[in-house]
Amino acid sequence: MTGWSPSPKVAWAFGALVPLGVLPVIFGERLLGVPVVGFLGLLLATGVDALLGLAPRRLAVAASVPATLGVGDRSVVVVTLTSSGRASADVAVVVDFGPEVAPQGARRARVPAGGEARLEFPFVPLRRGLREVVAVWCRWEGPLGLVRRWRTVPVGRSTAVVPDIGRVRRDAIRFFTSRDYLIGRQRERERGDGSEFESLREHMAGMDPRTIDWKASARHRRLLSQERRAERDHQVVVAVDTGRLMGEPLEGMPRLDHAVHAALLLGYVALRTGDRVGLFAFDERPRAWAAPAAGVESFARLQHATADLEYGTGETNFTLGLTDLATHLKRRSLVVVFTDFVDVVTADLMVENVSRLARRHLVVFVALRDPELESIAQAPPGSTDALYRAVTAADFVRERDVVLRRLQRMGVLVVDARPTDVSTDLVSRYLDAQRRELVG
Q1: What is the mean pLDDT of residues 69-76?
Q2: What 8-state DSSP symbol labels residue 27?
Q3: Which of 138, 207, 208, 283 is least enclosed by beta carbons within 10 angstroms?
Q4: Can you give the pTM of this predicted structure?
């Protein structure tokens, strides 16, 4: 789609020539030619500008769009402008990204005659799903600035926005090589720890006498002790709330996507340590169920399952969701619940159902802290409105802490962290529960 129109300079020039039309009235008809010459000159200059400027059909526009992108990650859409005419142009370009993508302002590029120019536009999707680059809008003026031309090129290409596996991989590598993890692995293999037999070794002074294997000692005619480790093949189920509150943004991403990232990192670590990992999603009703499976190759299945999670618009039904989850769990499991709540009143039903689940299973409740809400609550009020905001925010923070303490008293493990820390805090809590054999 192409077109042209007079630029604002033409309107200003026409307005400046209007007073010349009064001259014949004041000084006689001998000055009638002055406004006529002025208006004809403006028309002539506009025509010359139209002829000398770059014609819309001479400007080719192409856009390079990434095929896939992790949510919260950043990429670029490269727009290439190619001129096949004899005139250069200073082109303003706008990319129409469609909904759920951070809008970008116009950018300008000088396109030489017979040459090309490239522009890069940040592509920042706000949510998972197919995100379309709709069109590219170009606008430029002639050398005199009197005629404005424009060209719209439909793009119609979509990018699959999926959970950011690259970020999960980076966090996993950083976690596996961290000092805390290595120390934890050493502690996990301390003598006498765990309930799963690993090996026999000669009993030494200072070792716990309860670890002596008397039958093996009699057979080998020397004292031998058993070395044990934490039991493997536990069942880990990640229960993700996809309701309306989880779709609210937090630090540039929906809460649901923060939960998905933490769930994937936990799943990767759990699979690497020998446990079985499954996924359950719910909002108004159960949405997805992937039975726990073992092996690192199961991570791809977990990745696909989380990529298909949709953003719900209704209120979460904890009774229906967690009751349905309980029917899938045939053995004691570690259940990680990602959800959100507003206040004590709306959280009552959630607490009741989580506590019922915790009677049979080990439940880890993951809560995402809102740094902006905390900063409002702690900021010194500079006005009456700021005081009202601070008091309201402090009430929300206090009620949130009340709910989390209630869950802790019921035996639920609580991970209360900011989005930047929730993944590693959750994995640390999981490894601690594994070492202490809380699941078995």
Answers
A1: 83
A2: H
A3: 208
A4: 0.73
